[in-house]
Amino acid sequence: MTENRHETHPEIVKRLKRAEGHLKSVIAMIEGGRHCLDIAQQLHAVEKAITQAKRTLIQDHLDHCLEETVGALPRDQRQSIDEFKSITKYL
Fold it and tell me: Under a CB-based contact definition with an 8 Å cutoff, are residues 26 and 42 in contact?
C-alpha cells in the first residue's frame, strides 16, 4: 500500500485526538455517576469532532485524489465534478 498523506492530515489527527479526550471524559463521567445531561453534552462534542475529521478527510481526498484521476476537463464537463465536491460538504 502506498503512503498517501495530505496537508490536512495533521489537522485531522488533532481533531481525532480531541475526540479521544472527550471520549475518555465521557467514560469517566459515566463511571463517576455524572448527570445524563453532562454526559450527553460530552458525547455531542465527541460526535462533532469525529464528524469534522471525516468531513475534512473527504474534502481533502476529493480536492487531491479526484483531481489527479480526472485531470483537466473542459468547463462544460467540469461542472458535474465541482457540484459533486460541493455537495459533499453536507455529509
Answer: yes
The CATH number for 53's domain is 1.20.58.1000
Distance CA 21, CA 15 (A): 10
53 is in which domain, residue-wise? 9-90
pTM of the model: 0.72
CA distances from 78 to 62, 73, 81, 88 (A): 14, 6, 5, 16
Rg (CA), the chain: 18
Task: Tell me if 51 is assigned to some domain.
Answer: yes
Each residue's pLDDT tens digit, 27-84: 999 999 999 999 999 999 999 999 989 988 888 888 777 777 777 777 777 787 788 8
